[in-house]
Design a protein that fits this description.
- It is a single chain.
- This protein is mainly alpha-helical and about 325 residues long.
- The chain has 19 helices and no strands.
- It has a domain of about 90 residues.
- It holds the Pfam family TetR_N.
- This is TetR/AcrR family transcriptional regulator.
Length: about 325
């Protein structure tokens, strides 16, 4: 007689097996980050997880199988998909490339493991050598194609060598992550990579700005780099039609619920900067620092601050405090 199926939400043997498998992979990531693949033993993994050695072998029959499972899970979770990047437009490629760094920054142990393995696997006898060699070759090819396409479209210098640019960007990616491990507060990997890319683009060409701002690469970091390199502020980009204040456009910055007329006032005040957009993107809210600058410069009316509170992008108590400050100001 067949056993009854588990009800939804019940934990069965399968759920327990998945949880144990994940625990083994988590422990392996930690240990590779600490001692590398060659210092790893399946018995040590078992001890760290609190299970028997055969319990690890049940899920991963060999140390090599365990290593490749760790790499596969990491790449799946971080969307490290080189094949998918081959079908993207150039600035979408750059966005996907820099997004990898955003994903990695949330898990320093993964960065440590990635740095450890990328060096270890340079040895041809390492079990992950072929995998890493194919990954490097794939990324180099994708980035070279992206720069080549930009060159064909007259968006970067005709004298530039796309292959060299790709090599530099890839080397920068790995080098910056190592520096970040030493100084996590002082090294902004995404901003540095974005600056490197933006510096190759001919920003005097309207087509270049249009291509950037219509892509996923139109990030706060890219806008900051554009201002630094070409002097274009957010207000300039709005004035020239490279960005819009539509809810669809503002959704990626967490500001889709803010009425367009209020956003227009904020942007045209010249007060909003790329750091403010980055904060909004990460927190789905406006920073108290930005609110203070808006108040000091009398950018909005009291009812407009209340509207910002109504749509949830500023705390209502902050609005009350700001309203009191505004009411006390001499006219």
């Amino acid at each position: 007689m067949p056993k009854p199926a588990h009800k939804s939400g019940e934990r069965g043997p399968y759920a327990g097996g998945v949880a144990r498998r994940e625990a083994i992979l988590d422990a392996t990531v930690d240990m590779i980050a600490e001692v590398g693949y060659h210092g790893l033993s399946m018995r040590d993994v078992a001890r760290r997880v609190g299970i028997s050695h055969p319990g690890v072998i049940y899920h991963f029959p060999s140390k090599e199988a365990l290593l490749m499972a760790v790499i596969e899970r990491y790449e799946d979770r971080s969307n490290f998909d080189v094949q998918a990047m081959r079908h993207m437009q150039p600035f979408e490629v750059f966005n996907a490339f820099t997004e990898l760094s955003t994903e990695l920054s949330s898990n320093p142990t993964i960065v440590e493991m990635e740095c450890m393995l990328s060096v270890e696997a340079s040895n041809e006898v390492h079990p992950a050598h072929d995998h890493f060699a194919a990954r490097f070759e794939g990324l180099q090819s994708v980035l070279t194609s992206a720069f080549s396409q930009l060159q064909t479209d007259d968006l970067i210098n005709k004298d530039a060598d796309p292959k060299t640019l790709a090599h530099s960007l890839l080397a920068e990616w790995y080098g910056l992550h190592i520096q970040w491990l030493y100084n996590r507060d002082g090294v902004d990997v995404v901003a540095s990579l974005t600056n490197l890319i933006i510096n190759q683009v001919d920003l005097s060409n309207p087509k270049a700005l249009r291509a950037i701002m219509s892509s996923g690469f139109a990030t706060p970091s890219a806008m900051a780099a554009i201002e630094q390199v070409a002097g274009f502020t957010l207000e300039d980009l709005l004035e020239k039609g490279y960005i819009s204040l539509s809810s669809q456009e503002m959704e990626k910055y967490g500001l889709s619920d803010v009425p367009e007329d209020i956003l227009d006032k904020i942007v045209r005040s010249g007060i909003l900067n790329a750091n403010d957009l980055e904060y909004a993107q990460e927190n789905q809210a406006l920073s108290i620092d930005l609110l203070g600058r808006l108040v000091i410069n009398s950018v909005l009316e009291t009812e407009e601050y209340n509207t910002l509170a109504d749509v949830g992008v500023v705390p209502r108590e902050a609005v009350a405090a700001l309203t009191a400050v505004m009411a006390a100001r001499p006219f």
